[in-house]
Design goal:
The protein has about 450 residues and is of the alpha+beta class. It has 9 helices and 8 strands.
Length: about 450
């Protein structure tokens, strides 16, 4: 009896433990799903999970493989072959009525051959240099892709923060208008307000509600974009952790432009393209030069007299000079192509330099403008808030009209949104300065 009771107690304890674990699993999942998503974490997820980032990484891998492929001309090429040939008739001679063959009807041959380019007047070296330039260009394009994805993540991240705050401001305006509408309906029932006052309040409330819906729609769209950039599930919750308070960016356009000319990926890519064009031209000038090729083989075959059916080991080795005589005008066309590519790369470098200087100056001007707007809009919010409070007091005492009150509250919401917009623009312009100056925005 005691053993039975012990077994029952043990089973009950195990069931309680299992139930406690099953009850804690959803809680753990909920806590994990609701973990705050910081901007740094969003940038990391974008760089690791976004398909464009992975595509750029694979392109670098492919370019690196092309470098290895271009070096293959410096190594011997080893191949093996085996064959059978039936020949009839064959050379033969008769002695005293007996036929003597100089080669068999059934011919067998198996061999291993090694062939290697000994000297090609720098053609392979130019090919390798061209492939290396392509690999460097692929790496720089990867940096550009990651930078643009990071900037898109930053913009979307702060857009979500901005729109959530904008929705909150609109909700506050809607609540205030609803309170005004309730008061207006009471005053209209008492005969202290006109039908026009009631309709005006209803129209203002409907307009504020429409603006709130617009902000909510834009917010949902930006959340979809942020999930896609970060590689999150389409229904994953977004608990963002961030603010519009960031470290002020540098305003020295000259220093930023100098840094951009050295570190901006577009400038580095233009320089690599110019190098690639130079290697392409060098390769084109060497295409018509001769090359020296050595070869050696070892194998076994039949056909040797006096026993032409016996398989015998044989070796062969040699060196040959290969001289191109006519290539269908390929060399001249390659030279024209390489020269045109080099001129194009030079123009690309000049355009990248001009664009870099212009973008740095424009981004600094925009940043300066948005910083000044923050101060002015902060003052507007203070003035609009005070005006709204005075309008409410005057309205309650019958010293202001309904339209005065509605205008004051609408001005307050507009001022708050303008201040929020200026802070959002400052953050975006600060990141634009970083992008223009060559920062890859990894954090």
């Amino acid at each position: 009896m005691q053993q039975t009771m012990k077994k029952r107690n043990t089973i009950a304890a195990l069931l309680l433990v299992a139930l406690s674990f099953s009850a804690n699993e959803p809680l753990l999942a909920a806590e994990t799903g609701s973990a705050p998503l910081t901007l740094d974490e969003a940038l990391r997820m974008t760089r690791e999970h976004n398909p464009k980032a992975r595509q750029a990484s694979e392109e670098v891998t492919a370019a690196d493989a092309r470098v290895t492929e271009s070096r293959s001309a410096w190594f011997p090429r080893i191949s093996g072959k085996a064959g059978y040939h039936y020949i009839d008739p064959v050379s033969e001679i008769s002695f005293d009525g007996a036929a003597m063959k100089f080669m068999p009807n059934d011919n067998y041959d198996a061999r291993i051959t090694a062939e290697m380019m000994i000297y090609d007047f720098g053609r392979t070296a130019s090919t390798v240099n061209l492939a290396k330039a392509g690999r460097n260009s692929a790496t720089i394009r990867q940096d550009i892709t990651l930078r643009d994805l990071s900037l898109a993540t930053v913009q979307t991240f702060y857009s979500v923060l901005f729109l959530r705050e904008a929705v909150r401001v609109q909700e506050k305006e809607v609540m205030a208008l609803r309170t005004n509408l309730d008061n207006m309906q009471k005053r209209y029932a008492e005969g202290a307000a006109t039908r026009f006052d009631l309709l005006t309040t209803q129209v203002r409330l409907a307009s504020a509600g429409n603006r709130k819906i617009d902000y909510q729609t834009r917010l949902r769209n930006q959340e979809i974009t942020l999930r896609r950039l970060c590689g999150l599930d389409e229904h994953a919750p977004l608990n963002l952790s961030g603010s519009f308070d960031i470290t002020p960016a540098s305003m020295d356009a000259d220093k930023l432009a100098a840094s951009a000319l050295d570190h901006r990926p577009e400038m580095m890519l233009a320089r690599e393209n110019l190098k690639a064009a130079s290697h392409k031209k060098s390769l084109a000038t060497r295409e018509f030069l001769p090359k020296i090729v050595g070869s050696a083989s070892w194998g076994t075959k039949n056909g040797y007299v006096p026993d032409i059916d016996k398989m015998r080991t044989n070796v062969a080795a040699g060196v040959e000079l290969q001289v191109p005589i006519f290539d269908g005008f390929r060399k001249s066309a390659s030279l024209r192509e390489a020269a045109a590519m080099k001129r194009s790369a030079e123009q690309q470098r000049l355009d990248a330099e001009q664009m870099t200087r212009a973008e740095v100056q424009q981004s600094v001007n925009d940043l300066q403008n948005s910083r000044e707007k923050i101060d002015s809009t902060r003052l507007q919010v203070s003035q609009a808030d005070l005006a709204a409070k005075h309008a409410r007091i005057r309205y309650d005492n019958g010293l202001a009209t309904t339209l005065d009150l509605l205008d004051a509250e609408a001005a307050l919401a507009e001022a708050e949104l303008a201040h929020l917009q200026s802070r959002y623009e400052y953050v975006m312009n600060a990141y634009s300065v970083r992008r223009a100056s060559g920062d890859l925005i990894e954090r």
